[in-house]
Each structure stands twice: as structure tokens, then as C-alpha cells.
């Protein structure tokens, strides 16, 4: 989306995926907000997680401020809690949208199809204006494109 043309980032209610307690609000003090929508059953989601965490760290070392959040859309909260308890690889923490009926309208509000496939990566400015949405697995070759986006002003 061009600056000033993207939808506002308004998340449905979230909870902490490991505990089920109310989730932290997604916000950014300065810089970019990077949301990664995923599920425990999604192979491409699990494959890209270590890569997106690594890239966030590289971008931050390069002076690009990024607040990254993983957000699960799993339907089975107990299965998600078990999955998170057994994690030794990213994501080590995640939010969860417990109301599965809220996911599709939220995706539509972002300009996506209701049945869009995950993983979905959403990049928003510090003012919570969505600037880019990537559906499908992020691969090594996407690094320069994402870096160019994130190196631009997040305002």
C-alpha cells in the first residue's frame, strides 16, 4: 500500500498462546510492526519462523526498528498450549486469536480474501497503518525486498 492508503491495523481480541491469558496489545513505540499469522498444523508457517526471527534480528542490527509478533489462528487452544510448551525453536512466544469467527472478517478488513492461506506476514507503520501484506511462505530470496520496505520510513 502507498503511504496513507493502507488499512489501519485493528486486531481481533488476542490471548497469550501459552497461558490463555489476555494478550498484550500489538503496538510499536517507533519503527515497524511485523505480524506473522500462523498455525501449528501449517508446515510453511513452521519452516519460515526461524528465518523471520533471524531477519528481524539482522534488520535491528542494521538500525531498523521492528516489533515482531507471532499470532496463531489455531482453532484448538489446548493443542496450541501443548505446542508452545514443547517449543525450543521460534516462536518461543505467540499471541492467539481464540475466536475463530473473528479471523475471516479481520482478514477482509485488511483487503485479503476471507479464506487467504497462511502464513501471512503483515507490515504496518508505527501509526498502525498497513503498508504491506505477504501471503505464503517467506523464502531467502525475499530478504532484500523486505529490507528495502523496512528501511523506508515507517511513518
Structural overview:
With 155 residues, the protein is of the alpha/beta class. 30% of the residues lie in helices and 19% in strands. It contains four helices and six strands; from the N terminus they run ββαβαβαββα. It has helices at residues 43-61, 77-85, 100-109, 143-151, and strands at 15-16, 32-38, 66-72, 95-96, 120-124, 130-135. Strands 1-4-3-2-5-6 form a six-stranded mixed sheet, covered by helices on one side. α1 (43-61) links the parallel β2 and β3. It is globular. The mean pLDDT is 91.
Q: H/E order of the elements?
A: EEHEHEHEEH
The side-by-side strand order for the widest beta sheet comes to 1-4-3-2-5-6
Parts with pLDDT < 50 across at least 5 consecutive residues: none
Measured by DSSP, the beta-strand proportion falls in 15-25%
Q: Tell the overall outline.
A: globular
Straight-line N-to-C gap: 13 Å
State the helical fraction: 25-40%
Tell me the number of helical segments per DSSP (H or I, 4 or more residues long).
4
What secondary-structure arrangement, pairings included, does this model have?
Layout: E1 15-16, E2 32-38, H1 43-61, E3 66-72, H2 77-85, E4 95-96, H3 100-109, E5 120-124, E6 130-135, H4 143-151
Parallel strand pairs: 2-3, 3-4
Antiparallel strand pairs: 1-4, 2-5, 5-6
Output the keywords.
single chain, 155 residues, alpha/beta, six-stranded mixed sheet, 19% strand, globular
